[in-house]
Queue: 4 jobs
Job 1
Amino acid sequence: MVIFITNTFIDSRTNVVLLTFFKTFFSVSKTKTIPIVSRVEWGAQSPTSITNLTLPVPYVIIHHTYEPGACYSLLECSSAMRSIQNYHQGTQGWADIGYNFAVGGDGSIYEGRGWKAVGAHAAGYNSVSIGIVLIGDFVSQLPPAQQMELTKELIEVGVELGYISKEYSLIGHRQVRSTECPGDALFQEITTWDRFTPAVNTK
Ligand SMILES: [Zn+2]
């Protein structure tokens, strides 16, 4: 089982290299082979229920985990995912891990509820957004560049695949709820990203 996971991980990383090569030299459309660690690979529990999103969604909402802290390997990040899911399902009583996707410091994306299911990460906005969490505490420190680039790639792919509106608004969690999330450092950073929207209609 461990060997299988390791092989998949290496394949995923190879895909990133190929993707960069093709993008650089052939200007082809982004492929669908971004490195996503599936729920089976990180050891997810099944959701207790699923509500479908109406696609494409108009918002992308960025979070940090704060806790658990940053992870830098498939094993560490998978463990972080399981602990977040345990907290969300067990303590909070939610149907599943709250986020649609998580991005690890190991250079991989982790599948949460995915592109099609309504998440539980930003009250009032769950049904109109994809929630992406960067694993780690980014109050005073930025995530590694690779982790942020991968987050941007994930958003671009979501747009290409029709899950995220081309005119999407990128916002931080704190813009729709009283919370420090996604941390001061990361929030300042995302204000420079494509389609960041300073003013959000409150719901
Ligand atoms: Zn948040």
Job 2
Amino acid sequence: MLEWLNPVKGFGVTFHTMFTKVPTIEYPEVKRPTAPRFHGRHQLNRWADGLEKCIGCELCAWACPADAIYVEAADNTEDDRYSPGERYGRVYQINYLRCILCGLCVEACPTRALTMTTEYELADDSRERLIWTKEQLLAPLQEGMEEPPHPMRLGETEQDYYATGRGRHGTQGRPEEDSEAVR
Ligand code: SF4
Ligand code: SF4
């Protein structure tokens, strides 16, 4: 009944759309802010003295469903220290040709070394450039930080780093306070 109205209804959709505000964003000149917990590229965080939080344990690599992370650990020595404790991540790479930005690696990290930023502009025309290295992923040095290698400044042992409120649940561990990191 009243089937002859169907074409008119169809045009109704067209006219409605013609007068609806266009949602097009003039990217890249205009960038819409992401959600605060958006999963963008990763960041390797530092302690307040500049030492690296990554201990080279490879848990992130094992948790990754896309096999996108490659880690090689090395031993710290008193003269050549990059992180509190025994080991640090000497080589750290994330392959953004494989990464699906799921965040499982962040969940697996025991030291909150690895978080994700809201940066999403990861496209490139070079395979090599899409494999990000440790140097690219490391958080920039903030005021009061010192480029490793250097001795532990926040305590005598690695336990001091975690126990003094600067650990995973302390001020340095909160994702919103890891520079640029959101997760
Ligand atoms: S975000 Fe997901 S896919 Fe990407 S490196 Fe982490 S675990 Fe792997
Ligand atoms: S980022 Fe975290 S999980 Fe990955 S190797 Fe470093 S400490 Fe381990």
Job 3
Amino acid sequence: MTTPTAYDVVVIGAGIVGSAIARELSGHQLSVALIEARNDVGDGTSKANTAILHTGFDAKPGTLESELVHRGYHLLSDYAEHTGIPVEHTGAILVAWDQEQLDALPDLKAKAEANGYQHCQIIDAAAVYADIPHLGPGALGGLTVPDESIICTWTVNLALATDAVNRGTVLLTDHRVDGVDIGPDTTTLHTTRGDVVGRWIVNAAGLGADLIDALFGYQRFTVTPRRGELIVYDKLARTLVNKIVLPVPTSRGKGVLVSPTIYGNVMLGPTSEDLHDRTATGTTEAGFDFLLSKGRALMPRLLDEEVTATYSGLRAAIDHGDYLIQADHAQHYLLVGGIRSTGLTAGMAVAEYVRDQLAEAGLVVTPKAALPDPPRMPNLGEAYPRPYQLPEAIETDPAYGRIVCFCERVTEGEIRDACHSVIPPTAVEGLRRRTRVMNGRCQAFFCGAEVQALFERETCQESRR
Ligand SMILES: Cc1cc2nc3c(=O)[nH]c(=O)nc-3n(C[C@H](O)[C@H](O)[C@H](O)COP(=O)(O)OP(=O)(O)OC[C@H]3O[C@@H](n4cnc5c(N)ncnc54)[C@H](O)[C@@H]3O)c2cc1C
């Protein structure tokens, strides 16, 4: 039996938060492993959210979450420009539907300012309807949030993980941590694929973070999976709404919104339901009915449009009002817990914070002299050119002119590229997130068989059907 290499840092969980941490740390003179229970990166909460790049205007001032969402917004906006992660700065309007909500708007504006966001304006009902003409009747006024934006959560996760690997991180998928042995100098993580040893362990396991925490002897928090179901409407609905339409937030979260998506659809959701089952990512009839009732009031015209898909994600809600990021100096262990409903935005700032916490705890964190350029990601955004629209690309490589998925206009060239990328998909599901293939109106009825065949050809995999 060979002794596993001891990494300087092992990060558990290859969602947005863990991938951002691995990327940040491997920009320094450290050996880093990123280990993930599933067979792909970004297959947990990070793949199924509302995909809004938050300004943090409505966070609780003074919290770590407020600080890191604010910082993360700027870091991710900048990173998106360098990597080609699609973002649309649509802006949002928070709509007041009754007098109580209208009266709450000045406090929300003040809160935004306390969170470092100075651009909110209170507007009257006429201005709300001028911006969102298809809004349902009864709006009394609103608060504008001009910098709230939509983004591709899949590309964020993949870009961060790819960057981490390019910088030297060793990515180990299919490695579920189920035990630990804490030694004087190193910790051995027992996983479903053998042991992984690290001098420092960072727990970014999302919904599983409290279970890993317990392996280190803690009982400081419990994760409650808080399900959010969403409905995605057809692209023909996209003309109905150009901005994110937000409700007045409550203590349970941000509420049900209507938003354009980066892929050219319109989204309604999410619900908010506390569960026990950490795997319950199915959608329900009750959730659907609830969203339809909300949608009917928010934007009745939307309900005339076709539904393309429904999905749900699980927020890692915890019994603690803020992010829980704490280093245990003695055990060389750092917890990143409770990154509930803002982790897509805050991930890169969480990574910086983790780096500083580790440095404070004594880890020598010296930047590498040179780093590879950030990866240039394939564009999945509807607002930017895609290969089928680029005659020069098609001329150089005719595979970009051969559309395989007609609903989403995905070409053979993009599928091939994804299969040969730094982190290739291990199943067709992963190909969806890398290309948009099979995500459209027909939900793979037309292209499913061809996509499967292409995937098998490009990855030399046996059919899993
Ligand atoms: C409905 C909904 C809407 C949201 N909307 C937004 C939004 O608009 N904007 C925003 O900024 N945020 C939003 N969020 C929050 C955001 O999606 C999350 O905060 C973020 O994705 C969390 O990333 P993560 O890396 O912590 O978790 P995850 O993506 O879940 O990653 C954790 C990883 O750890 C792995 N793991 C778990 N246990 C183990 C183990 N024992 N061994 C190895 N690996 C393990 C999991 O498989 C998983 O891949 C939303 C969330 C939901 C559910």
Job 4
Amino acid sequence: MNAAGNAHPRPLLAARDLRVRIGGRHILHDVHLDVAPHGVTALLGRNGAGKTTTVRAILGLVPRTGSILLDGQDVSGLRTHVLVRRGIGYAPEDRGVFTALTVAENLRLAERPGSRPPDYALVHDLFPELRQRAGQPAGTLSGGQQQMVAIARTLLADNRLVIVDEPTKGLAPKIVTEVAEALERAARAVPVLMVEQNLAVVRRLATTCAVLVDGRTAYAGEAAPLLADPRATRRLLGVASGSTRGGQDPPGARASAAESPDTREAQS
Ligand SMILES: Nc1ncnc2c1ncn2[C@@H]1O[C@H](COP(=O)(O)OP(=O)(O)OP(=O)(O)O)[C@@H](O)[C@H]1O
Ligand SMILES: [Mg+2]
């Protein structure tokens, strides 16, 4: 932290020594994660690295040990519904959309009485299609449209942090771009923790990131220097940063191998 306190502002959420054991098996060993107070923080890692378990641990959906600070307050012992009331929105990996309900009904379920009125203006501005499809059963939406419902629900309520788990998974490139654009705009309104494997999306959206390897944090810091280092991304993520899933790296993607002094790798 510099004298002005601006270079490294206090993280919105800080998880330390996060450990999860399920059925006698250690899934998370020592995860530390800082979510920046602005913009998008990416949580990266190969399949099975523990990304979803980490967000579920933060939300109290799996038994965990370690400490979690939200805005500097210890929320480690809080149950999921309390954390949600404290302003953490969650769009899960399976999207969690109620398929038999309409789009409008799905959104209405996300309204949180007692807080400020639901921000339908923001949601309809980001996802105009959802207004047009308000009466359509969510189960008949495309994967991308269902993802939009899932993200929209997190934005309706007065959340101070939104967590989205693999928002672009399984989507066609054009829809990936649409979802990324919406998240980019959403992140101007509320900080986002985004689990993502598409490095083009990470490059576009995230300023900071953490990489998990086998349930441990192996990198925490700025996203750009990591993504500019194909050797590091190959080692940590199993994919060189020039070649992303689906080949969706933009032609202007940075290719410099120069490592910034900010690059920190906790594990060699
Ligand atoms: N409830 C559970 N019971 C047993 N094992 C689990 C459970 N949940 C997760 N795991 C295991 O923990 C490891 C991490 O899983 P997790 O879903 O967190 O990975 P991930 O990084 O989100 O992977 P992906 O990219 O495939 O979504 C995996 O080996 C998984 O099989
Ligand atoms: Mg996952």
